[in-house]
Design goal:
By secondary structure, this protein is mainly beta. It has four helices and 33 strands.
């Protein structure tokens, strides 16, 4: 009995009406309207995942025909790192090419033998991961360079397979502690002017309880706390939703959050619209503006530090990956940064991974100098407007790294 499935309509249009179906279970020819050759696995999407735990790591590449071939078809495959830039430009992504010295393509000459529809196998090998840079996602394009023995074309949309390297990252994070809640204020000359922006933070809720009392997470703000990004859960009976206050603009997420799972939260202001993304997906948006047209970021507040609210609004959670950009990221850029980003990314002004694992010094990964020494923090202890030094806050920094703190990029 023949088993058929159609390629998506978009692919049909792109190929000018070419139709090819999967090989059926009893080994008969493919059913087709027009013939073609294609790299296996690219029928629906040329971007495929190559999971890499450690090196060496291997991925098998084969070529298929839409029907059994009458004579041997010889094809030459090649790794072509130059195709990464073209892919990024077309899809607004930010993948990186690997150095060819770290790769190997074994058996690049493959053959679809007469009477068959599937070629012999080539193997892509990653020889080492030592040159991988943290925060980067890598891609290996493997393409058909030449072929002979067939008058059928190589289907253009399936001529290249893009192997997206996926790795499991085990990371440090900070376990929230009311005693650590305080503010780090940068010198005036280090204020970051933001007319458009993206703020990001990764959080693992543990204390959500659907109370009608706010549970503060953090604030990114100007020196005097004006024009802040203030983030809290369960404001105004919002049932485990997150409330955002960004330069006076307020909205509540569509999503109800749950304990014991990681979320990457991304706030974007493009000049007229303020949006919240959760794990790379758009959650909610509002029209908004910033008074005076600019936010001068200068202050980071961990938790809720005002007076007795350090305990009254304490929220149990883990956090890491706080980033400040001076531009509005695209949806694809946001999705590509769920586990980390390249510290040299365009527009990334400050980036705290919180991956030190010990101590109370938090490094700015960008190299722009926004390092934070938590023994140099201060807070309003008496709720009277006066900031008091809190060197003791450094003693309450708690680090954690376990099987919970994992991300697959």
């Amino acid at each position: 009995m023949k088993i058929k499935f159609n390629i998506i309509a978009a692919l049909l249009l792109l190929m000018g009406g070419v139709v090819f179906t999967a090989c059926n279970s009893d080994g008969d020819d493919f059913e087709w309207d027009h013939s073609g050759l294609f790299l296996s696995g690219t029928e629906n999407n040329p971007l495929v995942t190559f999971a890499v735990e450690d090196a060496p790591a291997s991925y098998t590449i084969t070529v298929q025909s839409t029907k059994k071939v009458a004579q041997d078809v010889h094809l030459t495959l090649a790794i072509d790192p130059t195709l990464v830039d073209a892919y990024n430009k077309e899809h607004t992504t930010n993948y990186f090419a690997l150095d060819v010295s770290d790769l190997e393509l074994e058996n690049p000459e493959v053959v679809i033998a007469a009477g068959s529809a599937l070629s012999s196998a080539a193997t892509v090998r990653i020889l080492t991961t030592e040159n991988f840079k943290e925060g980067r996602t890598y891609m290996i394009p493997v393409t058909v360079k030449s072929y002979s023995g067939s008058s059928d074309p190589v289907i253009e949309t399936s001529k290249t397979i893009y192997l997206r390297i996926s790795r499991i990252i085990n990371f440090f994070a900070i376990q929230a502690n009311a005693g650590a809640s305080s503010n780090y204020i940068f010198p005036d000359e280090m204020a970051i002017p933001l007319t458009t922006l993206t703020y990001e933070a990764k959080i693992y809720p543990q204390g959500l309880n659907r109370t009608n009392y706010p549970q503060r997470f953090m604030a990114l703000e100007e020196k005097d706390e004006s024009k802040s990004l203030l983030v809290r859960f369960n404001e105004a009976n919002s049932d485990n939703k997150v409330q955002t206050i960004l330069a006076g603009n307020r909205w509540i997420s569509a999503r109800e959050f749950e304990n014991n799972q990681w979320y990457m939260l991304t706030w974007v202001f493009d000049g007229s619209t303020m949006s919240l993304y959760v794990n790379g997906e758009l959650d909610s948006s509002i029209g908004g503006s910033i008074e005076g047209g600019v936010i001068n970021f200068q202050r980071y507040e961990m938790g809720m530090s005002w007076g007795g609210y350090t305990t009254r609004q304490f929220f149990a959670h883990r956090f890491c990956e706080i980033r400040i950009w001076d531009r509005a990221l695209t949806a694809s850029e946001i999705k590509g940064g769920l586990c980390g980003v390249d510290p040299e990314s365009d527009g990334l002004k400050a980036y705290w991974k919180f991956n030190e694992g010990s101590g109370y010094l938090f490094k700015d990964e960008t190299g722009h100098g926004y390092d934070m020494d938590w023994s140099q923090t201060s807070r309003d202890k008496s709720e009277n407007g006066n900031m008091n030094p809190t060197p003791e806050a450094a003693n309450s920094i708690q680090w954690v790294k376990d099987d919970i703190n994992k991300c697959v990029n």
